[in-house]
Amino acid sequence: MNEKLTIALTKGRILKETLPLLARAGIAPLEDVSSSRKLVFATTHDDVQLVIIRGTDVPTYVRHGAADMGVVGKDILLEHGAQGLYEPLDLGIARCRLMTAGPVGWQGSGARIRVATKFVNIARSHFARQGVHAEIIKLYGAMELAPMMDLADLIVDIVDTGNTLRANGMEPLEEIAAVSSRLVVNKAAMRSRYRSIQRVVDDLAAVLEAGDAAA
Length: 215
Ligand code: PRP
Description:
Blueprint: E1 5-10, H1 13-24, E2 40-42, E3 48-53, H2 58-63, E4 69-73, H3 74-80, E5 85-90, E6 96-103, E7 113-117, H4 120-129, E8 134-138, H5 145-148, E9 154-159, H6 163-167, E10 170-179, E11 181-186, H7 187-192, H8 194-214
Parallel strand pairs: 1-3, 1-4, 7-8, 7-9
Antiparallel strand pairs: 2-3, 4-11, 5-11, 6-9, 6-10
Bound molecules: 1-O-pyrophosphono-5-O-phosphono-alpha-D-ribofuranose.
């Protein structure tokens, strides 16, 4: 039985912004996570270990209690659901927007449109809310290629700087949701390990508050 509090972190860009926040809350990995092939890391905090996984897997680990807490993008929570999770903190990092986008000057014909995305649930409910008949085409990456290759009319994707859209002759159309990374907590663990979890939540909240004050 593992007694340590386990925090599941999303690897990639979110991780780069998460580690400084955690460090200011007294939780720093004991080795350089970027140069290690390990997946589990002990930290400077005796009671906390980190696991570093794909964002789409973070809610699964936390929901099942394999990790007590996690850091994950709101886009993943919207797409895959947040059942079994508390979301006590918006960490305010990795901010971007979930948007529809299309080729520059694209005019919908009003007929059925084809939408390429990896966010199939978000896209489906977005177009359903608008009463638009959309065929959702699931892709795992490079959504911007789909209209160019006539696989789809529009895409639903993350937009940060907009550079990827511009570089591929596309423009953002509608914002579906603002995205940032969230701290999530397993609901059962929140009860059974309340003190240690709430301490981490409070420490992170204090770090965020101090950051806001400095900004
Ligand atoms: C995301 C997204 C876009 C790009 C947008 O991909 O899918 O391609 O970033 O950023 P921009 O507006 O600043 O150009 P990411 O690089 O995260 O890789 P992914 O395809 O694995 O999600």
